[in-house]
Design brief:
alpha/beta
C-alpha cells in the first residue's frame, strides 16, 4: 500500500463541480492499494500516518502530529500510485489492486484513521474522476510504502 501525504492548510475534492470532501490544517492523503496488499499493510500505515510529526510546534520545529494539532484528513483513492514506468513511455497499472480488493482496504484505512482519533476524515469517491484543490503547507510532502515500514 502506498501513500503520499501532503501537509495542507486546506484541501478539497470536487466531482462534477460539487465538493464531496475537504479538510483544513492536516493531511491530504493519496492512497494506492497494490496487488497483494492486506489489512496488515493498512495497519502499518495506520501506525505511522496519524502520529507522523511534521507539524510545527511553538518553536517552529516539526515536532507535532496530526493528532497533536487536532488536524483533519482528506483521503483520496489513487490507483496511479501503482504505476510501473520502467518500460516505454506509457505507465502500466497492472500492479494496482482490482476495485473488489482495493475498496475494502481503502475503507478499512479510512475507518482506522477515525478509530485512531483523527478529528475529521473525509474522502473522495473511489474510481471517480476527481479534481483536487489544495494549499500545500511548507511544502511538506511524504511518500510512504507499507512494504518499507
Amino acid at each position: 500500500m502506498k501513500a503520499v501525504l501532503q501537509r495542507v492548510k486546506y484541501a478539497k475534492c470536487d466531482i462534477d463541480g460539487v465538493t464531496v470532501g475537504s479538510c483544513q490544517n492536516g493531511f491530504m492523503l493519496l492512497l494506492g492499494v497494490v496487488n497483494g496488499d492486506t489489512k496488515e499493510d493498512a495497519d502499518k500505515l495506520l501506525k505511522k500516518v496519524p502520529v507522523l510529526r511534521v507539524f510545527e510546534d511553538e518553536n517552529g520545529k516539526m515536532n507535532k502530529s496530526c493528532l497533536d494539532i487536532g488536524g483533519e484528513m482528506l483521503v483520496i483513492s489513487q490507483f496511479t500510485l501503482a504505476a510501473d514506468c520502467r518500460h516505454g513511455r506509457r505507465p502500466s497499472f497492472t500492479d494496482a489492486a482490482a476495485p473488489s480488493e482495493a475498496i475494502p482496504l481503502y475503507e478499512y484505512f479510512v475507518q482506522g484513521l477515525k478509530d485512531a482519533g483523527v478529528r475529521r476524515v473525509e474522502t473522495g469517491k473511489f474510481g471517480a474522476d476527481m479534481q483536487i484543490e489544495l494549499v500545500n503547507d511548507g511544502p511538506v510532502t511524504i511518500v510512504l510504502d507499507s512494504k518499507e515500514l
